[in-house]
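ESCALATION

Customer reports they have been waiting on this structure for their group meeting. Please prioritize. Original submission:
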Amino acid sequence: MNYKKNGLYIENISIQRIAKKFGTPSYCYSLNKLKLNIRNFKKYFRSINPLLCFSVKSNSNLQILKEINKMGMGADVVSKGELIMALKSGISPKKIVFSGVGKTFDELKFAINKNILLINSESESEINQIEKISKIKRKKIDIGVRLNPNIDSKTLKKISTGKKEDKFGLTEINFLKAINKFKNSKYLNIRCLSVHIGSQITDHKPYAKMLKVIGSVIKKSNHNFDFVDLGGGMGIKYNKETKKLDYKKYNSIIKNFLNKYRTKIIFEPGRSIIGDTALLLTRVLYIKKTRKINFVILDAAMNDLMRPALYGSRHEIMASIKSKKMIRKKHEFVGPICEATDKFLSVPKFQTLREKDILAICDVGAYGMVLSSNYNLRAKPSEILINQSSSKIITKRQKLNNII
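Update from on-call: job pushed to the front of the queue and completed.
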C-alpha cells in the first residue's frame, strides 16, 4: 500500500477505484504482500525448517487459506468449523494442529476421524475424553499437551495467554502429572509439547524465557517429544512507534535450544502473515465539528472492525487522496453504532477532509473480518483480493434480506 501521485494504491489499483466498484466498507487484501510475508517468515527460520501452521482464527477466508496452502503452509485451528474450512481449502490433514481449551466430544471425534497431525490438549479431562474416543475407535491418537509456562509476554493484557492466571494450558506440575499418567497409554501417543504465550509480541526476550522453561520441563518429564509447538504471537508494526520483533535473535535462541533437544519445531503464525496485508475501506458520512474535536463519522463501525473497541488497539488511517494541508485540531474517527466505544482512532491533527471522502483503516488482515458481526443489524462487509492490476470478490457483501 503506497501513494502514487497523491493517490493511495493497493498494488496497482487505487482505493478510490476499488471503493467505487465494490462499495464501502470493504476489506481489501494484497495477494503479493501475503506471499511476501510467507516467504520472509520461511527465510527467517530456514535454518531450523519448522512446520508452519497458519492460525486460522486470525483470518478464515477460504480464498486466503487456498493461497496460504499454495505457499506450503499448514493450519492451526480452534474449532470444528475452522478445521472444515482448512480441509476445504486443500490443506493436508497431516499439516493441521487442533488447539483450544474447550473442544467438544463432537469436535474431538471429527478431528480423530480426519486423521490430523495433532490434537493439542489443554487439560487432563480433555485427554481422558480423547482416550475414550480412541478406545471406541481402536486406534492410537497423536496428541500434544499444552504447557502454561507462566511467562508475561509484555503485550496487551486481553491477548496474553501464557501467565498462570490465564485459562490456557497446564501448569508445570499438572503438565508433568499428565505426561506420567498417559505416556504409556495404549490409545494415546504424546508427540508434542505445546505453548503459546500471547499475541502481538515484539520482543524476543519473553520467547527466550519460554524456551528455558520448556527445556527444564522436558528434562523433568523424561519424555521424548517429536514436536515442540511454539505457537505464534509475532507482532507487526501497527504504527511508527511499534517495535519490530528481532527474528534473527529468536531464530538463534531456538537453534541453541535444538542443540540440546532433538525435536521438530511447529509455529502457528497468524497476524505476522496476514495482519499488514489488508485495508478496510470506508467512506466519510459526516464531519461534526465542535470547539475542540472534529468527529469524522464513517460508514464502517465496530461491527466491521472490532479490535479497537475490544482491545483498545490502534490502527492508522490514511486518506485516499493525500493533502499537505493539515487541520491542527483533534480528529476522532468514529462509527455510526450506538456505543461510545465505536471509535477507531484519535489524532491531534489530520489532513483536510470532506464528506464522502474515502479513507483506509490500515493493517486489518488479522482479527478483522473474523470478528465482524451483525450488531445493530448491520450487514457484514465484502472482502476483495487484489493481485497487481486485478481485483475479485472473495466474500460478497451481506444483504439485509439474508439476515432478517
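Sent to customer with the following note: The domain at 2-29+275-403 is CATH 2.40.37.10 (Lyase, Ornithine Decarboxylase; Chain A, domain 1).
Escalation resolved.
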